Amino acid sequence: KAGVTQTPRYLIKTRGQQVTLSCSPISGHRSVSWYQQTPGQGLQFLFEYFSETQRNKGNFPGRFSGRQFSNSRSEMNVSTLELGDSALYLCASSLDVDRTQYFGPGTRLTVT
Amino acid sequence: QKEVEQNSGPLSVPEGAIASLNCTYSDRGSQSFFWYRQYSGKSPELIMFIYSNGDKEDGRFTAQLNKASQYVSLLIRDSQPSDSATYLCAVAYNNNDMRFGAGTRLTVKP
């Protein structure tokens, strides 16, 4: 069974730009969660989607948004990028959010 | 506020020793508890999960859960240098919410 895939793996953007990251979950998994990971803050929960509905949202500004498609693939978007948005963005899929989450390799975003 | 607390470490143990990693959580409604391992530059990978009070063993790993004390721990027996990583505790809550601790960095010295 193929694992969670994320694209792109690496991204360099400048301040003020926007970015869209993609996540394809494990086949059959309907829950997709997004996390931001930085050395100082650890793993911070962004949001979780299940069957195209956002069920939970972390404490991030409205510049961070996401969506999920009918095939469970998910995208997250960050608008008006700031230097502090530089991080590893991880996507995790599971049968449901309280079940084991399987992580993708992450997208390393650098904002200059 | 749903909090998951871990000692950030670093925790250093000699090869062959037992490493003990601890995690406390704030919400008594928590249902499921997970331990993930993350090597530097890699994404987290599941070690084990536990739902019920008591101990759960898997090879060299033992997870211990005490819901009354809101405490979950991970013991690694016969620690190996390859166990050197950051260990993340995760707690799933009733309302479809999963939160991670900041992680404990473990170093196993040969």
Give a written overview of the molecule.
The complex is a heterodimer of chains A (112) and B (110). Chain A starts with a strand and ends with a strand. Chain A is mostly beta strands. In chain A, the strands form two sheets. In chain A, strands 2, 4, 5, 6, 9, 10 and 11 form a seven-stranded mixed sheet that branches. A four-stranded antiparallel sheet of chain A has the order 1-3-8-7, with no helix packed on it. The model of chain A has no long low-confidence stretch (mean pLDDT 93). Chain A is globular, with a radius of gyration of 13 Å. Chain A contains no helices and eleven strands. By secondary structure, chain B is mainly β. Chain B contains no helices and eleven strands. In chain B, the strands form two sheets. In chain B, strands 2, 4, 5, 9, 10 and 11 form a six-stranded mixed sheet that branches. Chain B is globular. Chain B starts with a strand and ends with a strand. Classes of the chains: A mainly beta (112), B mainly beta (110). At the A-B interface, strand 5 and strand 10 of A face strand 4, strand 5, strand 9 and strand 10 of B.
